[in-house]
């Protein structure tokens, strides 16, 4: 559930006497790991169970074929207020600080600090929007603007998790321009580019050689532009729509600055400022299959399954002068959703749905920045057509996370005489989120 831009340390050069380590991203997502799926208030109402097979601009993020054959220009805007709650609890995290010349060797000891960190993820508002413009009765152009990986998290000063996580901020803006064609009366196809901007910053505490000394600190920040693609199709008849899409993995390259300060004694030489540090990582591809089935004059049933290739997020690779890689070892996972739309009247449609999503994080490799867990997402919502040209969508979701272990072994100052191993042992407990979504749809 919680985000990570994890940093451990390696010795760089004797002349620089600097340290750095690795970086990893994650987020307080309501889909999986650090992916946010709240890109449509209409979709939220049925727990994202029919988006790849539905039509109109509101489904563009999931399937660029969704606007093929449209007759009117359409714009949609949505905003989701994400309100997460939960606590991250220390279950005996240990640290072994380095030994000093002439003194007895130090042994593993409790990390200390506040043993319960409550609500480290900030509340936030996630905006999104899309626009579709038909060129004729078969071809349409469209663009969706979304933020699929975004969060801010704050652990309090003195938290037991301080060496793995302090303050983390991640913002992505995905611009998806595309084209869709109704090849026949029953087949629609589409393709799009995904131009994605990423901005990230993080900080965490660094251990000095004695527990009695104040902690040092580290801050890493950077940004970059990257490119991916999406393609999909839909097959329609009078009662059934089947949709399929593929959203590519994206290789991200961030370039930024690293600042290390507050280290004293034998570690003081590691205080440094580096610019031009590059971090490279992948966000996963998505393979999406869904169906919408009319079950009567007013009822439509929805089902959707998504395969996430999270194994792409296998490591964070850092360029010169660091030239190292830190394993993440995420696993490929699935989400499954079912839901319904019920047209009460020509103006009012009610929705409901449920989604099950499996975490890509593994036992033994989960840390305080991403104590992610399997979750259930329960949704309900409605659409109301205010005028022939304007309608509103509203939804509420409750996301229930399972309790999960936080159990990763890391180390500061790896490969140096000051190497400081940390055996993280904690637990995610009582975690859940409420998501409130509101949107508007306009035709021209």
UniProtKB/TrEMBL annotation:
Where does this one sit in the cell? Cell outer membrane
Q: Does the keyword Transmembrane apply?
A: yes
Pfam families assigned: Toluene_X
Its cellular-component GO annotations read: cell outer membrane
The signal peptide, as residue positions, is 1-31
Q: What membrane topology is given?
A: Multi-pass membrane protein
Could you list this entry's UniProt keywords, alphabetically sorted. Cell outer membrane, Membrane, Signal, Transmembrane, Transmembrane beta strand
Q: Which InterPro entries match?
A: OMPP1/FadL/TodX
Assign the protein's first listed, main location to one coarse class: membrane
Superkingdom of this protein's organism: Bacteria
* Coiled-coil intervals: none
Question: What GO molecular function annotation could you give as one example from this UniProt entry?
Answer: long-chain fatty acid transporting porin activity
Question: Is Transit peptide included in the keywords of this UniProt record?
Answer: no
PANTHER family the UniProt entry points to: OUTER MEMBRANE PROTEIN NMB0088-RELATED
- Protein family (similarity comment): Belongs to the OmpP1/FadL family.
What is this protein's record name? Long-chain fatty acid transport protein
